[in-house]
Design goal:
alpha+beta; rod-shaped; 2 helices; 29% helix; 11% strand; two-stranded antiparallel sheet
């Protein structure tokens, strides 16, 4: 009697058989299901970010405000901040 060697390869998992009260029942092996939320995710709202002006743009406008005040000293910081807000489109 000759014996034959059979090489087995791994295959996808087959259905498992279980017995329930004596009767054979086939149960399929399935991957676990991902949980699905019943609530819809809130949609992101588009937000317009303020434009960031360059140092040179702010300096030009601040100098213009200084000239409008008659070249009066003592308000450089206020002129700078006003120019910055104006160029960024922020209401003061």
């Amino acid at each position: 009697m000759a014996t034959e060697t059979v090489k087995k390869t791994k295959a996808a998992p087959k259905a498992k058989k279980t017995t329930e009260t004596g009767a054979a029942k086939t149960v399929k092996a399935a991957a676990p299901k991902a949980k699905v939320s019943k609530k819809a995710a809130p949609k992101a709202k588009a937000v317009a970010l303020p434009r960031v002006p360059s140092h040179q743009e702010i300096a030009r406008l601040a100098e213009q405000y200084w000239a409008e005040r008659g070249w009066q000293d003592g308000f450089a910081e206020q002129d700078w901040l006003r120019a910055e807000r104006e160029l960024m489109g922020i209401a003061s």
